[in-house]
Design brief:
Layout (H helix, E strand, L loop, with lengths): L40 E6 L14 H9 L13 H4 L2 E6 L7 H17 L3 E6 L5 H12 L3 E6 L20 H7 L3 E11 L7 H8 L3 E4 H7 L1 H12 L4 E6 L21 H9 L6 E7 L10 H17 L3
Parallel strand pairs: 1-2, 1-3, 3-8, 4-5, 4-7, 5-6, 7-8
Length: 319
């Protein structure tokens, strides 16, 4: 029987608009909470967009996603899973990330995730811009003792060199940095959905030179998402893998609330199918990033993001 402590209240008992919002109405467990070590999968926010290169606002993503996620119910109708019965989940709060000091912000995030991993809690991060993924990968690499695989669902590779003529990290290069630091195994890395205009081909060139499998959106539509997700599964195999989902993977007709939208992407349903296709992999962590509430006046992007977050959770628990 599931532990009632880790079971979110039903909307039939407490209206979903009532109560203090947490991710999916889960218990909030700060670092000193006595039952924190019992958690299997920990949701947490990295409310930071200091690496955004154009339209900011993703720092407000975790709060918007908490509120939207109160609409989530207990069962995944498509898979039949009841993820809150299969894993003890909790909201572990937000990391204090300085909006003016990138090094401090990233270090605080890495320290936070390192503490989670020491308690054997798998991370499910909510950003924030996409550089927020880098400290999570750093903490996981230290805990794993070896590089691991990566699946990226995104409209960009985020393999660009540093911007503005210096060595500054941005949300456009967390995975280039992850390859350079040896955090991820590029031969077990697959990126899907890339599209839009580009400055040049340097990101693709870097990826191909290191063995990264990049599947542009044209191939996704030509071959079908089911086929390319089968490719993704083959690339990462059954060894440890991290899953990163940028909300701009989805066409902005469905997810306008993001800083760097690219037209010509998948529908909401196709995106959900992509995540469901990863059931059964050895997922050591996952994230959802780049929801920007200032560009989401209807709240629809946050609700779609919360729905994707539930699918990520479902992919991380037993089938």
């Amino acid at each position: 029987m599931p532990d009632p402590f880790f079971t979110p209240p039903s909307g039939t008992d407490l209206p979903r608009y009532a109560g203090v919002p947490s991710f999916m109405r889960l218990p909030y467990l700060p670092p000193e909470a006595p039952r924190r070590a019992e958690v299997d999968i920990g949701f947490f926010g990295l409310p930071w967009d200091g690496a955004t290169s154009n339209r900011p606002g993703a720092r407000h993503g975790p709060r918007a996603l908490r509120d939207a996620s109160t609409m989530i119910r207990a069962m995944n109708r498509a898979t039949g899973q009841r993820p809150f019965d299969l894993a003890a989940c909790a909201d572990l709060g937000d990391v204090a990330m300085s909006p003016v000091d990138q090094d401090e912000a990233l270090a605080n995030a890495e320290t936070f995730v390192t503490g989670m991993l020491a308690q054997t809690i798998r991370p499910l991060m909510v950003g924030g811009d996409h550089l927020c993924t880098l400290p999570v990968l750093r903490a996981l690499r230290a805990a794993q003792g070896a590089p691991f695989g990566l699946i990226l669902l995104d409209s960009h590779t985020d393999l660009y060199p540093p911007y503005f003529g210096g060595q500054t990290l941005t949300h456009g290069n967390p995975f280039r940095q992850a390859v350079t630091e040896g955090l991820i195994d590029p031969t077990r890395t697959v990126m899907l959905g890339m599209r839009g205009t580009s400055y040049d081909t340097e990101d693709f060139d870097f990826g191909h030179a290191h063995g990264v499998r990049i599947i542009p959106i044209e191939a996704c539509f030509a071959r079908g998402f089911e086929a390319v997700m089968a490719d993704a599964r083959e690339v990462v195999g059954h060894d440890p893998t991290y899953l990163s989902f940028d909300i701009d993977f989805i066409d902005p007709a469905y997810a306008p609330g993001t800083g760097t939208p690219e037209v010509g992407g998948p529908t909401s349903f196709q995106a959900i199918q992509c995540v469901r296709a990863l059931q059964g992999l050895t997922l050591i962590g996952a994230d959802l990033v780049e929801v920007s509430p200032p560009f989401d006046p209807s709240g629809g992007t946050a609700w779609l993001g919360a729905s994707i977050l539930f699918e990520l959770l479902s992919a991380m628990v037993p089938t």
